[in-house]
Fold:
Amino acid sequence: MGNGHTEHKTLVERLQFIDRRIIFVFIGLAVVIPLLFGAVLKEETTPIVQTFFDTIEGLPEGSRVLLSFDYGPTTAPEIQPMVDAIVRQCAHRKSKMYMMALWATGDNLTGETIEKVLKPEFPDYKYGTDYINLGYQTGNQGLIRVLLVDFKMMYAVDASGTDVDSIPMMKNIRNLKNFDLIVSFGGGSPGIKEWVLYAGDPGKIPVGGGCTAVSAPLLYPYYPNQLIGLLGGAKGAAEYENALINAYPEYKGRKMAGMKLMMSQAVSHVVIMFFILFGNILYFIQRSRDKSRSMEAGR
Amino acid sequence: MNAGKLLSYIILAIVVIAFVVSIALKGFLVTVGAFLTLFIFSFLYKDNPYYKFAEHLFVGASAAYWMSMGFWKTMVPNLFGKLYPPMVAWAVPALKNNPAQPLMLIPLVLGILLLMRLSSKAGWISRWALAFIVGTTAGLNLVRYLRSDFIQQINNTVFSLYVTNASGFDLGATISNVIIFGGVICGLIYFFFSKEHKGAFGAGARTGIIVLMITFGASFGYTVMARISLLVGRMQFLFGDWLGMIR
Amino acid sequence: MRRTVPLVITLIVGTVLIVAEFVPHKPFGNLGDKFSMYFDIIAVFAFILGGGNLVRVHITKISRKKADWPFSAVTLAGFALVLAAGLFKIGNPGGIRGDVAVVGSLFNDLYIFIFTPLQASMFALLAFYVGSASYRAFRAKTVEATILLVAAFVILLGRTPFGLWLTGGFTGSWEFLQVPNLANWIMDVPNLAGQRAIMIGIALGVISMSLRIILGVERTYLGQDND
Amino acid sequence: MKDRLKLVVFLTVIAFIIQATVAFAQSEGETADSVISEQPVTPPPKPVIVSGEDIPNDNGHKLKLNWEYPAEWNDSIVRFEIYRADSPDGDFRRLGEAAGGIFSYLDIGSKKKDDPNYMPNDQNLYYRVDAVSKSGVTVQSEIGGPFQTSGQWFHKGKVPVLIGVVLFAIFTIYFIRSARKGKDLYIRPLAGIEAVDEAIGRATEMGKPILYVLGIGGASDIATIASFTILGRVAKKVAEYQTALTVPCYDPIVMSVAQDVVRSAYLEAGRPDQYSDDLVFFVTNAQFAYVAGINGIMVRDLPATNFYLGYFAAESLILAETGNSIGAIQIAGTDQITQIPFFVVACDYTLIGEELYAASAYLGRDPLLLGALKAEDWGKAIAMVLIIVGVLATAFGWDAFREFLRVNL
Structure:
């Protein structure tokens, strides 16, 4: 009896310091299984996302939207679903999309978005009249400051080296004030904050943003005065997709990236919480045993 | 040949075969990306030759990547292209008509001074460049932090503790404001170095620690979401782009 | 001489930049931006030091046949390959005049297919580590640890639908007890207070450190030998 | 009577014609509204330039032009075009436009003489504003001016910042001086600092190396500079105990400084022969490749003690968890607020923000640096007083205090 008691105790002790690889396996499964089953989690759209959606929805046909790809491959899993959703919406609204990047790494992601979303889903959208890829330019916030005054000074050619003066949709672009909306995607610096401070505020141009969950708290203070809306992390993306589905029924039933992301999120959060609870329960069991044991010893 | 060695050869054979099959089915580039991803993840189990391979490749490739970017995106346009444009016009014709800026001699000289440390005799002179860099940062940071973090954060904390809304006194918002106010003050008390944490001051410091702990716990919990997203991205690549198991 | 000149340079440069912050007039106005650009350029010169050191370390490892020396050859091969594609623009459709990272160049392909998966995978390891770290560290051992744990737990719970499911019963004036609302409140109120206290402290630390550097009190970064 | 009849007929015909025109215009589409609102047959009035203000607190080359225009015409004016010249009869260059209903324009000129948009400071400038109506009629204003722009010698919005700089300089110098005179200063213990000796001792006992990571900051990051000082102290102890030290670097400049610092420390400890440049080496300048490399060093060299002091980003937790898995004692410190929680959770000791900067003073017990710490405490006291006074002032409805602290960026 006594023997069994001590053995049992070591088990509790052992479990408290379980091999962390067991936790790794659980987290891996929590992410992969929902993905393989294509499970999605719908998110109700909150006002900060809905106003953003409504702004684009309210733009007249042919409005000019500047999309700035200010992120890299490492944060793409979080940001790309937002980009896809907004590009789809702009294409439905027949807005003219001007794509550029403040980050060198944004260049490839712009091309990827065009190849994976715009070309297959909107074959009627023509390069040069409906959308343009201007590519990356150095200068960070300095670039924004120049664009506010003279757009073509920094973008004399597009990403593939074509003279912008020969591109129809660039004809009436003089500076940033010619755009009806600026959307920046990115979590770091330069990014949304710089667009607000150096373009949105001085030029009185509406700015919207999509950012990583980590940087969202730093940007919330700019809403609603300086930002028309903000998508924060996977949740923001899923909320935007929900708004898109509500407005465009053809997306109904489609499993969109942000919603898939949310399901994996929820499951892995539960796994982590389970382990925290589990660890604490073991800790309390052991502590109460230690206590009773030391009391026995004291007697 | 012992069992361990045999096993490692078997694994190597499997990896090579899988790699070849994958290239045949999915193409070279996706395969490379997928295997490098798996090599990195294998570190979670334990250190192994595959991780070592990925790690060493990553270190070498990334160092050269930033050197190349630094040369073509900074050195050529911002230094040579401004100092004496014809010098680089053969590589970047767009710079040809830039006006020459003799002031750019300053960074050129400082850069060369920095390289002097390669010489054992004149190595000390590289400190001049260093002194310039550190002096610049110190000057810029002093004013910037004073302005945007010190004064601005104090300004943000100056608000009314007693909050009213349309229906009169707003209890919730009032409590929140009092907590922010008290939390900032106690947090600052915690950071005092030259006063012993005793008596009322000690109680303040202790409250400060509690506020900081809430901050740390909350930030940690908040970041989990972003980190999971990254893993989802990788898994989508592995199971979707590579294995084609996600539709 | 060897010690004094750098200290004088630091003093002058630092003071001038502080003055520049208050004087918009020429020539001070954009001195900060200019000096920062100089700094970027000097940093590229330093890459020569870094690259040289990297090559030296790994050649030494190979020549002395230190542990894992064959992997040093992998590092050198990767370094040489990317440098050839980047610095000398080998495999660039535009030749030497093409943009270094233009889509379709070998340099860009190496970036997308080698650099990116490696980088993203290293980053993704964090998802596993947040799990193992929270299992180990979030134990209610002390008051501080308990607070840390509870704050983290509420935020985690608020991020899942279960939070709302558990506490959806609180309505009306008790609505603030719903976990998502509680989580937002923690982020907006106590978290904000803590962040602000840390920020003000850091600002003071930076100010003091900068003053110490400009005044020449803090000088470890210059080395201490008088050779 | 006949004349009256004639008049009635005449007016009816005119009214009819107008109505017909309107109807026709409406059927033409969008321009219809404008025709209705542009009913007054008179041409649009001229804009009147009121003032040209130099923008304060800048380098010059910027001017805000204001003009007036009758409000009832707001709907019929599409845009105002703004022109500038060096003299009233000079060549007016088009600068840009403002939408109808907006009566000011910020002219941001170029500082460069060879730029066509060059805008000299302290010289006369003349402006003209053209109103363009929807029907395409353009009306030019009288020429406005002369106006001038100028650069200022002091940014008035930064007065509180200037006061702050002066105040801190005085504090720091005062306390450093009093410390130099030998005044004894109390400083409270910091757990992370007190653990440094123990951690080095442990590594020595176990015969294992010590890993010192300076983070991914450049030599210009204040956190990195603070870390150099700590590295100097750590390296000196390490040299005394004859323990192995590894310092992998992210930035080449940081690497060369760290080499100097460690070499000096070994010299000070009387063991210059133990130093070699192999202790401090460059890994790579990419965040995650650097982490991959350090992970490798950790699991292969199995250091007994890890220091992570400096600027860190997302990699903090990867380092701290790998270090934990090899059972190393870990002492961390950073000024990156987002990363402090990860170090707190996964390391044995963490220097939180400001404590990192204070660490150099703690380790060296250098009176000069201790004096600077005292000055920092005074800064905190001022912050607290300002917040408390500010909150009280706001409670009594006195907002001037808060306004004063508002910094114009």
In short: The longest strand of chain B covers residues 164-165. The mean pLDDT of chain B is 88. Residues 101-158 of chain B form one domain.
